[in-house]
Prior knowledge:
Layout: H1 2-21, H2 23-26, H3 36-47, E1 53-56, E2 62-68, E3 72-77, E4 83-90, E5 96-99, E6 105-109, E7 115-117, E8 126-132, H4 144-162, E9 167-170, H5 172-175, H6 179-200, H7 206-213, E10 216-221, E11 226-230, E12 233-238, H8 250-270
Parallel strand pairs: 9-10, 10-12
Antiparallel strand pairs: 1-2, 1-8, 2-3, 3-4, 4-5, 5-6, 6-7, 7-8, 11-12
Amino acid sequence: MRARVRSVVILSAVLLAGLAANPAWAQPDAPPGVPPSMASRLAADRLSAIQPGIYSSGEKDSFTLHRFPGGKYLLRFSGASESFVLSVERGSLGTKLLKYDTGAMALKVSVWGGLTLYTRDNPGGVPATRQGDAPALPVLAVSVPEFRAALTDETAHLAYAQKVNLKFAADPSVLESDPETRGRAFDALVNAALGIERFLASTPTSRQILMRRINSVKLAAGGKPTISIVGQTLLVSFVPGDGHEGHASSLAIQQELGRLMVASAKDIASK
């Protein structure tokens, strides 16, 4: 036992001497003009690097991850029509946290680059493995007939699948805009419909509350991505020039619908 303790002491002394003699062991070399603290941060960034590509986390949850302007990332699950913009935050022990626009966790990257996916079915997280490079993101251009058909399809889908009669429409300026703007409006439309379906499934009374409060959904260009209730219409605003960040995710729409419907229910109860 004494020999083992003596060995540990000797090893510790050797390591401390090595650190004193070799400052490079203690911290990364800083390039000219870069403070040592910044060099340490850059080294941590390299360790917990987020690698875009195609990922698999089992039979159900495969997804692609793309870089997005502003240091963000774009997440899209296989077979789904929605792309999520994820912001990046620093976590403990050098990890990085990728979050939805609601603030909920989507992905976590360990200091060694291991990636964990968080979903409603796996709130504790499940490991994801990179399978290869992701294909380039297409630019969605939608014609007027295609957009009108999408509005009709979403109206019919909710009536058939959810037994909810909501008419989807768009501001005339959206229909008269360029194909790319209509493409952004199409993304906002899809997210609005998915958000409504998420809200309907959230509580046993959600369907009754929603049907009593709104009877239509209207898309319009605006200064920021928001949803509001005007009369009995759910107004969904998107920002054409902001790309995927120009419209709220279905998760954010579900969350905001919950807030709006609770406020509406209180108003109705007070009258």
